[in-house]
Design goal:
The structure is a single chain. This protein has 187 residues and is an alpha/beta fold. The chain has a single domain, classed as Isochorismatase-like (Rossmann fold), CATH 3.40.50. 34% of the residues lie in helices and 22% in strands. It has six helices and eight strands; from the N terminus they run E-H-E-E-H-E-H-E-E-E-H-E-H-H. The strands form two sheets. The chain has a six-stranded parallel beta sheet. Helix 1 links the parallel strand 1 and strand 2. Helix 3 runs parallel beside helix 4.
């Protein structure tokens, strides 16, 4: 029998409107994440929160000890839900995330959060490489416009490109509703 954990990555205040690094669609992604969170809580399934905090005050966002580095109140962890604090893009690097998942006897992770092209990409690839079966709720992730070689790439295209790449070989990429409908076979 397998165990699926919900892995919520970096849905922190600085990524929301009026934050230091506002993303496109963060509130919509948070609403979908809340749907997942409620379902996992109702089923008493494992939930792990990850939050990023840069080690120095020179960072552009997620400053040490700041309000912006706190997990958004709409997704606040319960006392029994582990919170992993990281200072790298990859949530496994220099953290106890793997030990936490292994301690919960997890072999499947359902991933959501931000940013699609950075921390979601990195954690998914790392989790896959560590042997976890991965799924991403694409509508529970957010990112922002990027610039390359003088061209602005809209957030929707950044998100689509990364979800397509991850879906090719690293994870099942589907909507929140599709993944929740399949959660029983994953547990």
């Amino acid at each position: 029998m397998s165990t699926t954990a919900l892995l919520i990555v970096d849905l922190q205040n600085d990524y929301f409107p009026n934050g230091k690094w506002e993303l496109k669609g963060t509130e919509a992604a948070a609403a979908k994440t809340l749907t997942l969170l409620k379902s996992f809580r109702e089923k008493a399934m494992p939930i792990v929160h990850v939050r990023h905090e840069f080690p120095t005050a020179e960072a552009p966002f997620f400053l040490p000890g700041s309000q912006g580095a706190k997990i958004h109140s709409s997704l606040a962890p319960l006392e029994n839900e582990p919170v992993i604090t990281k200072c790298q893009i990859n949530s496994f690097r220099d953290t106890n995330l793997k030990e936490t998942l292994d301690g919960l006897e997890v072999d499947h992770v359902l991933i959501c959060g931000a940013m699609s092209h950075m921390c979601i990409d990195a954690v998914t690839r790392a989790a896959h490489d560590l042997g976890y079966q991965c799924a991403i709720a694409h509508d529970a992730c957010a990112t922002l416009d990027l610039e390359f070689n003088g061209t602005t790439v809209p957030a929707s295209q950044v998100h689509a490109a990364f979800m397509a790449a991850l879906g090719f070989a690293y994870a099942k990429v589907a909507s929140t509703e599709e993944l929740l409908a399949e959660i029983n076979p994953l547990t």
